[in-house]
Amino acid sequence: MEVLMRNMFQAIGKNRSANQLAKRYGLRFGAARFVAGETIGQSIEVVRKLNQSGRVVTLDHLGEFISTEAEAMESTEMCLRTLDAIAESGVQSNLSLKMTSLGLDIDKELCMSNMRRILDRAKEYGNFVRIDMEDYAHCQVSLDIYRELRQTYDNVGIVIQAYLFRTEQDIKDLNELRANLRLVKGAYKESPKVAFPEKKDVDENYKKIIKMHLLNGNYTAVASHDEHMIEFTKQLVKEHGIPNNRFEFQMLYGICEELQNRLVAEGYKVRVYVPYGIDWFGYFMRRLAERPANVWFVLKNMFK
């Protein structure tokens, strides 16, 4: 049943008609728990409150279903405006983005040009940009672009997904760049030809790549709500004397608040992934697909 629900929500999240309908009705039925608002101003206020609780942030202007150059340019402008707003408000936040929203599926050079504009602006402010990893079809080109950007920029990182067979080799290859990586389990539905189908195998690979990247001496963002993975990381850094400024825990806005606050109280750096914008539907559906508890939360809101 859980697998069926996950597949259903992932499919709905990719549906353009459903996305348009969601935009019409706004952040209702519980979506506001996971999305900080539709405007930059709303998101900055959320960031400010998280900062006050000791947490730092990475802001993501949500943008999916980009099909024209004009839409890609608009999304790029929103990323630039987000960086401006972070700097002007003085909040502690990086920027996260998806390269498909910058035109990757239209033209690679268009995407590269937009990425350079964003990284130049971030560099002016002394800020950092994280490239979100998308589905398997975009994995290699995303890594290729990241490698090219790292020839010029040191304020950019990328995400690596534990559920892919190729990931261990990717970690080895990225070591030469001293890559700043966010390590995740992976949230997209992938073929068993390219990804581990069993959770236990994903978990073991996740532990393996966390250990590899940390022991390679590279900055590591462990992005998980799984307390077993968090405890694994805490024990690993303790055993090897890895200082707290070499890693951080990352979690999603609206999920595991108590755990986030507990880690902050223990002295760990916690960064909250805070999405905002009108194009929130695909993100929201992926959150429902990941955790059945999120579905029940939404259903309760619908019938209040």
TrEMBL record:
Domain of life: Bacteria
Record domain Proline dehydrogenase: where: 45-298
Residues noted as binding FAD in the record, renumbered to the chain: M133, Q161, K185, G186, A187, K199, S224, H225
Keyword entries, A-Z: FAD, Flavoprotein, Nucleotide-binding, Oxidoreductase, Proline metabolism
Biological pathway: Amino-acid degradation; L-proline degradation into L-glutamate; L-glutamate from L-proline: step 1/2
Class in the EC hierarchy, top level: oxidoreductase
Protein name (database record): proline dehydrogenase
